[in-house]
Amino acid sequence: MNRIVRAAASLGILALSLAAAEGALRLKNASMRNYDIEMWRYARELKTPSDNALLGHEHLPNREAILQSTLIRTNAWGLRGGPVSETPAPGTRRIMVLGGSLTLGWGVAEDQTVSSLLQKKFDEASIKAEVLNAGIGNYNAQRYIERFLIRLAILHPTDILVLTFPRDGEALEQGGGNWLLRNSELAVIFWIAANRLLGPFTDRTVEDHYRVVYTTGSENVKIMRDEFEKLARYAVANNVNVTIAMVPDIHNLVDYRLNFVNEYFAGMARYLNFSYIDTLPFFQKVPANELWAMPGDPHPNALGHAIIADAVFPLVRDKSGSGAH
Length: 325
Known about the structure:
Strand order of the largest sheet: 6-5-7-8-9
Distance between the termini: 81 Å
Mean pLDDT: 86
Shape: globular
Radius of gyration: 21 Å
Number of domains: 2
Low-confidence stretches: 185-192, 321-325
Largest sheet: 5 strands, parallel
CATH class of the largest domain: Alpha Beta
CATH topology of the largest domain: Rossmann fold
CATH superfamily of the largest domain: SGNH hydrolase
Structural class: alpha/beta
Oligomer: single chain
Strand content: 5-15%
């Protein structure tokens, strides 16, 4: 009996200790300065599992949350921003911006994202245009193109701007986690630590990792090429302009080692008759440490979004709005 009592007492102490650690961690993370926890909160508060296995998850419609001290709101279409009608006004270009968390503008105020800055530029140029932000965090090329084709094509864009990034070629699991990972910050911290210890970069560099991802003939490349070919067929059938803007990984802009990814997307743009711009030269004018959303979060901040918008606006502006194909 004493053994049972001691075991129960030990379990009780362990439970109380874990609860105390969870409480202390939540108190510490209330500052919204922990990138991993803020991304976890994003998944809890603004995302929902998708009924389409290829998408994995989607934005909850008409929701908002303050994440990493920044308000992110979604409309009825799951786009970041305010209400959008199904059909653009007559004579108005509608530019749909596709991509992952970079396009979403993680850590950046809504009015400072690439989409909003392009909108301001069109307004200042007295060009009738509407720029829509279709970015979702943890999306690769397969996900954001599929989501556009099955969910957002109904919005009838005249132009599509794709903000590509090295991670776009990576395979992504559906995820969702277990009860602990959905509800405990402590469990999330342990899970992240384990993944970093055992993950893909433990014995190879980021460059090595992406060389594997973008190896000619790899399954990753095949899947992504198939998706962009679907987008090209849609563009031809619907007389839509498509522009690819390559955005660099901003960890190291001085000795940039991922140019082969940029070359891959440039080649695909030529193959599909898409317009293309590489924004790396524009970023290399600014020290990388001035571009991070916050320490520990290498998403571009407001300055980074301004650099992208300045680079791509002339190219998107000069399209006729009547289709590039």
